[in-house]
Design a protein that fits this description.
It holds the Pfam family DUF6069. The chain has 155 residues and is mostly helical. It is built from five helices and four strands. The protein has one domain. The protein has a two-stranded antiparallel sheet. The protein has a two-stranded antiparallel sheet with strand order 3-4.
Length: 155
């Protein structure tokens, strides 16, 4: 048993040590989703305060992307991607590094879609920053998942 009172084995980990950025797979997934959602909701509120409408027009139809869209488009991709990486890492821990790259590049690449849509300036800026928050959260969450797995594999 380690000095933090947690145990690890080569096959599983029950480690929850946010001070060293080490989380078990389920904790990493949950912390990443929450860790991206909360700032994104704050950014949405700041965007509203700055005059953003978070509405766009497509084929003559106006659609709002907030707050439901902010919640869904933050949480669902994170849950899907992180869960997939966690499941694959059960057999191949090295998958986490490529998942970090993909998890950073996809939200950053989709900023282009936000810019191309006809959002007002405040909404475009807020939504773009939300994509950056997701990229950072996913990389941090996957790294927090990877560290105890590597420690267990090397033990």
């Amino acid at each position: 048993m380690s000095s933090t009172g947690t145990t690890t084995s080569a096959t599983t980990t029950s480690r929850l040590n946010p001070a060293t950025l080490e989380l078990s797979r389920p904790w990493a997934i949950a912390a990443t989703a929450i860790g991206a959602l909360v700032p994104n909701l704050v950014i949405w509120l700041l965007g509203l305060a700055a005059g953003g409408s978070f509405e766009m027009t497509d084929a003559g139809k106006t659609s709002s992307v907030a707050p439901g869209g902010v919640i869904m488009l933050t949480v669902v991709p994170i849950l899907l991607g992180m869960t997939l990486a966690a499941l694959i890492s059960l057999k191949w821990v090295a998958v986490i590094r490529p998942a970090e790259v993909i998890g950073a590049l996809l939200p950053l690449a989709t900023i282009a879609l936000t810019i191309q849509a006809d959002f007002d300036t405040a909404s475009t800026i807020a939504l773009s920053v939300m994509h950056v928050v997701i990229a950072v959260a996913v990389v941090a969450g996957l790294e927090a998942m990877r560290r105890p797995l590597l420690r267990a594999a090397n033990a």
